[in-house]
Amino acid sequence: MAIKTKLCLTIFLFFLLALLCSNLVTAREDEDPKVTTCKDHCEVEHQYDEEDKRICKEECEDYIKKKQERQTHKEREEKEQEKEQEQEEDENPYVFENNDFETKIDTEDGRVLILNKFHEKSKLLKNIENYGLAVLEIKANAFLSPHHYDSEAILFNIKGKGIIGLVAEDRTERFNLVEGDIIRVQAGTPMYLVNRDENEELLIAAFHMPPSSDSAPVNLEPFFGPPGRNPDSVLTAFSSKVLQAAFKSSRGELETVLDEQKKERIFKIAKEDVRELAHQRKISLWPFGVLFKGPFNILSNKPTFSNQFGSLYEVGPLQEKTGLEGLNLMLSFANINKGSMSTIHYNTNANKIALVVGGEGDLEMACPHTPSSSSNSKQKRSSISYHNINAKLRPGTVFVVPAGHPFVNIASKENNLSIVCFEVNAQRNKKLAYAGKNNIVSALDKTAKEVAFDLAAEKVDEIFERKEEFFFPYDDNEERKEERGRAFV
Amino acid sequence: MAIKTKLCLTIFLFFLLALLCSNLVTAREDEDPKVTTCKDHCEVEHQYDEEDKRICKEECEDYIKKKQERQTHKEREEKEQEKEQEQEEDENPYVFENNDFETKIDTEDGRVLILNKFHEKSKLLKNIENYGLAVLEIKANAFLSPHHYDSEAILFNIKGKGIIGLVAEDRTERFNLVEGDIIRVQAGTPMYLVNRDENEELLIAAFHMPPSSDSAPVNLEPFFGPPGRNPDSVLTAFSSKVLQAAFKSSRGELETVLDEQKKERIFKIAKEDVRELAHQRKISLWPFGVLFKGPFNILSNKPTFSNQFGSLYEVGPLQEKTGLEGLNLMLSFANINKGSMSTIHYNTNANKIALVVGGEGDLEMACPHTPSSSSNSKQKRSSISYHNINAKLRPGTVFVVPAGHPFVNIASKENNLSIVCFEVNAQRNKKLAYAGKNNIVSALDKTAKEVAFDLAAEKVDEIFERKEEFFFPYDDNEERKEERGRAFV
Amino acid sequence: MAIKTKLCLTIFLFFLLALLCSNLVTAREDEDPKVTTCKDHCEVEHQYDEEDKRICKEECEDYIKKKQERQTHKEREEKEQEKEQEQEEDENPYVFENNDFETKIDTEDGRVLILNKFHEKSKLLKNIENYGLAVLEIKANAFLSPHHYDSEAILFNIKGKGIIGLVAEDRTERFNLVEGDIIRVQAGTPMYLVNRDENEELLIAAFHMPPSSDSAPVNLEPFFGPPGRNPDSVLTAFSSKVLQAAFKSSRGELETVLDEQKKERIFKIAKEDVRELAHQRKISLWPFGVLFKGPFNILSNKPTFSNQFGSLYEVGPLQEKTGLEGLNLMLSFANINKGSMSTIHYNTNANKIALVVGGEGDLEMACPHTPSSSSNSKQKRSSISYHNINAKLRPGTVFVVPAGHPFVNIASKENNLSIVCFEVNAQRNKKLAYAGKNNIVSALDKTAKEVAFDLAAEKVDEIFERKEEFFFPYDDNEERKEERGRAFV
User: Fold this and answer.
1) What is the pTM of this model?
2) How far is C473 from chain A (nearest CA, A)?
3) Is B170–C443 a contact, with Cβ atoms under 8 angstroms apart?
4) Is-contact B341 B476, C-beta < 8 A?
């Protein structure tokens, strides 16, 4: 008996050893190690014939497959998210659709959508990492509660009629907003917004920037003021004792006041209240002078470029009395008529964050970076080639054009394309074009042009010169239609 | 026999398989997987009755528990360190205790403690990542050897009587320091410090900032000048040949001079030497004009706010002749009397790094970020809620209040609470309050107030208005005492 | 039988349990856990005597060793790459040789080499992470095609005779360049370069900086303008349809023009063309005023320091009409005569990126950081000690000297050493020396000097004072030769 047991044990331990070793060391590469372990056991079982082994192995697969399915299901969603992220990184880090936005506030009467942390999306966006964009949708006669941000905000009234209330230490100033209005809200300023129209939605783009150059990415976390407990006000974070001492009130009194407000952060208000808030007060006199600079309408400027194909309005750091003084930011509003396009051009200094607000069309951009090459810093020899970044544009699409990158915007044949652009680092920025009046190819001196093109200068000028500036027709020549595709492939 | 063994083997391998599979796949979630594996074995043992199984399982727990204890002990220290780190990240990245400081210099006659690399502690501190804080403790009549930093330093004399020597190309200028004195030491300037008191310790806070906006985090590595070999002087890093050529001296001569100094970096000096150094020279006349700007005393300013509950002194970027011109920094000194508190308020632009220098008390801050949410950038829908960050304050505690975050400081009933604050990004900063005279709730216009609170404006004002500004009594109402806790939970 | 089997099973399961547990829990620290597992099994085999156990264990080692060898081989290459990287990090992150450059353009007629992404090389280079350096080698009579960068570039003509063409919206301005010429090319400006000499190579250093302070690291990706398809022009990235519409041309016409240019990005041109381009036009009159600021020659300045051992020329942010206004950059050119050295000195604010352009020699620098200490942020107690960073210098070597770090440059006995330095953050920068006329040791006041050195002030002055300023003889004293090595080790 002892001998038998001993033998039995010895043989077993041998197999066990083999099994464990094989388990740990020889896992086949493409197979789940658990399946491998299980199958290895089938194999080392000398008493099995080939058929037994086969069945044993099948059972292994089956058993483990089922066990894993439950887990797999849970992981799939995660993986898909990751994959999405990777694809974004690989394919086009410069374009953001609606589903790239985070819904920060979501109520029946309005929403706040935000887009920020650009550097987490792609290394290529590092030069806009500090900025953020929010889109505010406020339904007819709705009210967005008083709140402040820890970042500077530039509001652009895209659509509808608004009221903005800005709060100082001792009083509030209100301004009515119309389409094209720009207003700056300095960091930390409490503000509220109202849609003063009874029917139309109010749509506002808010561009956020850090309050100074040495700051970190903007948070876009709103700090909602006193009223309310559900949703929270910042005061709800403080202890009861602090609140009682700060407000010199009993707990009961405080609860009465602060609990009263049970509405959402955006909610409909009575027409009389809207009318009261919309009422324009006269500019108050000294010593109660103007606390905040009112809105500036971008359409009140003469367009920088305008012809039958489109127009471009700009409000920049050099223009006074706009509220953008000292900000190193240019705000521009481009309207490209249906069937037209902008010239191929680039910004010398500015990085541009553009939001499509009307119509539809296309973006094409030349880009020397590929995400793969940018990640491989050890590559010592590189070829320079330019990629075509292209995207369909529709309302809500955001696209980024870094400084130096040539690009073009094209309106569809059906609708005019409207784009609001926030151009950061705008101080010495110029827009340089490759085509149209005043283009940098025609501007080359004769000898350099001939040397560079290996052609007579006149021949080059024939192609690059044209009388239109900045906006051109795109789709007027039907016979070119079939020739879609890259010119040089 | 062969049959028996075969049977034995077959059964065994079956169990083994079951055991391994269960081990790998079905570990229960809350139990140690090793215990689970072991217990699984007890269960699959068909020959066991229920009692056997129970005992078997108990043995499992016992056996593995003992095996692990040894390992556990070793790991515990590691884990605690990690845990500490995580807790910091998870719970309160805004508060630093004495043990968060690094002891840069540690001698019998004084110490230099530093706190920097904030961004490595938490992502939420990214906007102060470039700054650093050092605390210098210099014993009576001790001397801190000449050294320079590669960062700009703003020194604040917390306690005691100092002398600072600042070295230029051709001579040294000395200034006597008293409590409340602020002096700026530009990057790279060699300096030494002396405690000119025979008894009292000299305590100085040194706030370090990069010499320009496009720089990296400060290093807080002191570069100690010529004397000494143990501890090192920077000269000891150069080769013998370079030193001989630079100083036109033989190796022997050099060693004599440089070896002489065997003292620590902070050491006691003779009373006569202290007296000699403390001697105030007349301001020298042109052409040997003032090289360095002397100290400015923060207490010589009129307090920004002052009442029977506390006072706040500020020296900011707009005030001239303070030495802080062009720095985008505000230095403030708050004194909250025992049993009093500051109002609930926030800085619109400034990020504040505060050092408690006297008394004790509490901090409460409302914070919209949670570390978990900040790390999950893919979360597309987020609720906004505010967390209570709170901490006990005692001398040496450092806390950070980012721009926009409402907070409150409370002094204990026993002692006045004194805090030195370095507020960066101070250029357009305002302190806005939720309670007291001039608060941003009372400042809401009537209609907005009624709409936001859903209450009559008078009722709201009743709660939010009070005649005191900025500092209030905290603990005067004994009957509120038992109601500790958050107001709205 | 049942009993036997049961016993067999029971014993087995006990061993199995022991084995699994020991496997999971008691792995010895320095041994491969797989070997440990295997050996544990040998030990628990009660039927084995000591000899059996020994053999069993040996087999364990052998078996697993072989299994692992295959894997090891595969991993080795990876590890070596990592090791290489680590070594770079460990040993000297401040010095770059030719093979650290990336070859961006490589043709028969010239090359463009670049060095950037410093922060990826070492954390210690974070304060220069935004900058980049390119070296342009253009052969006799060769032409570098029109292109632009998304960064600001400061060109320094190291050697040879160049022509630079800068393109604006409506015309091009050309400037001839000679050795020592500095010219600023603003971000986005299209430019071309020509070597106007028939024999000598043109060598230019181009220092790149982001167009504003809140930007990301420079990319150094050139955007090549219209001509050419192989290599690419940026226009090749656009679709055929866009190009046809933008240039109002048929596909055929476009291809003729754009395909014509089949040359490389740098190519030889005819002597007449060079002569034509080199022709100096008169400065044009208003309204066609000067568009671009022409070159400024650094050698036209009076040297900051000059004696028989060397000279230092500087062009800084405070000097007008240099083209560097508003840039916070100082450009310096040091010439150290053979057998001479600079003083031991440091920059108070500036971080210096230096390119050796002639001769050879040595760098020694004192550095308080070690990469290991910088990575361990949790270290709460640190000793301060200074490391000797040293490197051989030869043409093409780049070295970085951060602010505050004392260093010295030494020319070889055979050749003068010439270095071009780009010093960023130069606004309030001073160069402070430890030796020579006007050194910060002699400048210590008498009492502080005596206390610090523990010696009579006269004795200290004897060593540190000398009449020469900034440049000294190095190798004049032959008898000191054998005493190589650190002075204090």
Assistant:
1) 0.80
2) 39
3) yes
4) no
